[in-house]
Specification:
Blueprint: E1 8-13, H1 25-38, E2 41-46, H2 52-61, H3 64-67, H4 79-88, E3 91-95, H5 98-105, E4 110-113, H6 120-123, E5 132-135, H7 150-155, H8 157-161, H9 166-180, H10 184-191, E6 204-210, H11 214-223, E7 229-234, H12 241-246, E8 251-255, H13 261-271, E9 276-279, E10 284-285, H14 288-299, E11 304-315, E12 318-319, E13 329-335, E14 339-341, E15 351-353, E16 356-369, H15 372-392, H16 399-416, H17 424-451
Parallel strand pairs: 1-2, 1-3, 3-4, 4-5, 6-7, 6-9, 7-8, 11-16
Antiparallel strand pairs: 9-13, 10-16, 11-12, 11-13, 14-15
Helix pairs in contact: 1-2, 1-9, 15-17, 16-17
């Protein structure tokens, strides 16, 4: 194979692991045409012999001028051959999957096109927007995803792919090529652009407090790779939490017995090397848009010492828009020199901020509800801590608290805050909110009885 060694070489992951994870073949041909017209590169296809028919379709869909630089038959027929071949390439572009992940392991720049039903924020590992970059249909057609569960998106993936036109991707792909290729054509384009001053970005420590969060940790750690430091304060978990953390040498593990949420968070803050703190729960994720806003906030030089953000609550895979969740807002990014958690609050902790608080527009994703039983257990643990707060205030559990107040809470969330518009999930959450209120006073009553 007469590959021109003076040019950079692009590997294209033209096929995903299934139809619903494969960018439409005719669209892929257009993207390859765009790359070859924009940058002077060799092109290799990643596929296995049994996929040659689909690979031929992509090749046939390319322009004749593009076909001249595609080395169609130069493929890795085994894992060993693929790794050797990928190691000779300079960049990779295409569908998410094993080929991309192995290329990342070889420290190759990657550009991923995610399937519409895949959560980009959970799988865009090590993404920084330059060396590793990805695109998702939600960036261009967010309205197609409103009120859709993961199950619905998966079922309709092929139809959604139809809307994911190559024209949407060209701009993102161009910036990726500009950053990662050093051929003369791209260098010339760069020379026409006046260099921008790089802002002084404050370093940030991402902090998580955990107890038996093994199912959440790996994807969360991948989600936080943009942070300068990741600290996990664990309350002696009995599941696989500790072993998972050990797989990530960039993560600092500190073990501390849990007493209450405020004390645990304040302890965690004291472990951080950086002044700016980003607190996140194990069942939360930071989408790309919010990561971008966080970076922008950290590069600003104003008087703001903390930032609040809205949270999007998910009932399993369904986002809830009513029932009070639409106004759920938390302060999670702050300068530790100007903020501390109120130690009198044992649960639903409050951050006391000495200074101006700003706001971020993108929402923090909160995947708190997986099933009713585990959510109830969470509410019971919260109720026990809240009962201790009420006991410290010498409060009593009356018939009003045990029977009327839970009903009021149900009516407030289901009718006043229009939880009924979320359908059955809205009804379930309104009932669980009422359960949480009643449980709080049941626990208070137990504490009072134990005092006698």
């Amino acid at each position: 194979f007469q590959v021109d060694r003076t040019k950079k070489t692009l590997m294209v992951a033209i096929l995903g692991s299934s139809d619903i994870k494969t960018y439409p073949l005719k669209y892929m041909s257009k993207l390859i045409d765009f790359i070859v017209e924009y940058a002077d590169v060799n092109v290799l296809f990643n596929y296995i012999p049994s996929q040659s028919k689909e690979a031929q379709q992509v090749y046939a869909g390319c322009k004749a001028s593009t076909q001249k630089v595609i080395f169609f038959d130069l493929i890795g027929k085994s894992l060993r051959e693929y790794i050797a071949l990928m190691n000779e390439c300079d960049i990779i572009m295409g569908n998410d999957g094993g080929a991309i992940n192995m290329a990342k392991a070889l420290n190759k720049p990657s550009f991923i096109i995610f399937s519409p039903w895949i959560r980009q924020e959970m799988w865009s590992t090590f993404e920084d927007g330059d060396f590793h970059k990805s695109v998702h249909l939600t960036q261009f057609k967010p309205e197609l995803f409103e009120s859709k569960s993961e199950k619905e998106l998966k079922k309709n993936s092929l139809e959604l792919y139809r809307y994911f036109k190559p024209e949407f991707i060209y701009s993102e792909l161009r910036s990726f090529l500009d950053f990662n290729l050093n051929n003369e054509k791209v260098l010339h384009l760069k020379s026409l652009i006046k260099p921008l001053a790089i802002p002084d970005i404050k370093r940030v420590s991402a902090i998580i407090i955990t107890k038996n969060e093994a199912t959440n940790l790996a994807s969360l750690i991948r989600n936080l790779q943009f942070a300068n430091e990741i600290i996990i304060v664990d309350s002696y978990s009995q599941d696989d939490t500790k072993n998972i953390i050990k797989k990530y040498p960039e993560v600092t593990l500190v073990e501390q017995e849990f007493s209450n949420y405020s004390d645990q968070r304040n302890f965690a803050i004291d472990q951080a090397q950086n002044n700016w703190i980003l607190f996140i729960d194990a069942d939360e994720r930071i989408p790309k848009s919010l990561q971008f806003e966080i970076r922008k906030a950290l590069s600003s030089k104003g008087e703001i010492v903390a930032y609040e953000m809205y949270r999007q609550f998910y009932f399993q895979d369904t986002p809830l828009k009513y029932g009070g969740f639409q106004t759920d807002k938390v302060v999670r990014l702050f300068d530790k020199r100007k903020a501390r958690y109120d130690s009198s609050k044992l649960v639903h902790e409050t951050l006391t901020v000495d200074g101006r608080i700003g706001g971020l527009k993108s929402k923090l994703l909160h995947f708190s509800f997986n099933d009713e039983q585990s959510y109830k257990q969470k509410l019971i643990s919260y109720a026990k801590l809240r009962a201790k707060e009420l006991q410290a205030k010498n409060s009593r559990a009356t018939a009003y608290h045990l029977y009327i107040k839970p009903w009021y809470r149900f009516i407030y969330h289901y009718l006043v805050r229009r939880g009924f518009l979320d359908g059955r999930p809205g009804l379930t959450m309104a009932k669980l909110n009422a359960f949480g209120v009643k449980q709080r006073f049941i626990e208070l009553k137990k504490l009072k009885l134990n005092q006698r």
